[in-house]
Amino acid sequence: MSRQISAIGRWRKCCLRIRKRDMPRRALVNKRPYLVLSVAAALAFYYMRASALPEIYLVPIKGCAVGFLALYAWMRHSSCSARILTAALIAGAVGDMAIEFDLRAGAAAFFVFHALALVVFLRNRGEPLEGRDSLIFILLLLATPFIAYLLPYDDRVSLPAAIYALALGAMAAGAWASNFARLRVAAGAMLFIVSDLLKIAEMGPLSGSAVPQYLVWPIYYLGMFLITVGIVTTLRKRDPELRVVRGGQH
Fold this sequence. Notes:
Blueprint: H1 2-31, H2 33-48, H3 55-76, H4 80-98, H5 103-123, H6 132-150, H7 155-177, H8 182-201, H9 211-238
Helix pairs in contact: 2-3, 3-4, 3-9, 4-5, 4-9, 5-7, 6-7, 6-8, 7-8, 8-9
Keywords: Membrane, Transmembrane, Transmembrane helix
Subcellular location: Membrane
Organism: Aurantiacibacter atlanticus
């Protein structure tokens, strides 16, 4: 009898260990399904471009990648900064789809994204910058539009590209000066710069090259992913208020 009781005790302990191991997986499914859907949409768009599927069907898939990031930001925190981030990501998703039809419309939507993201960073300013940090801030702010101005071969495009890139550089500089984790948020903003400069370079030195076609989307999406997750994670640490979607309840 004592052996049976001991075996039952060991079985219960084993079950408890298994439940504890499964908890992170359940948390991912219950609390972060939109991140999984976002990554799935981003990968689907990237690989399905090489298929025979008409591009018109790929546009909503492309928009869903950042669209699901917006849903993630909305559901995970209800602070004002999270709401502004959500609006910025919606603008980004619109830009992803609009740019497939008209470059200027896409750029306008992304200009809105940069402006709203900058508001988030200004609301969450870090300590005053000094030394190397100040230099990086200035480089992000000024070098980005300067490079964008030089890239296009058509002089008529240079100024609009620089104006857009000024907003892009301001967003990245704001991320660098904010109190969000630089390894995520500022790094994501810098990846955004790289992807956009590659896109602009299609009108210049990379005209006819396959490099932008293969690199722009994964670099851009990774940047957006890091910005979103970095901001939301920091906001949740400061204020553990949390929305969890489960059966329509939170």
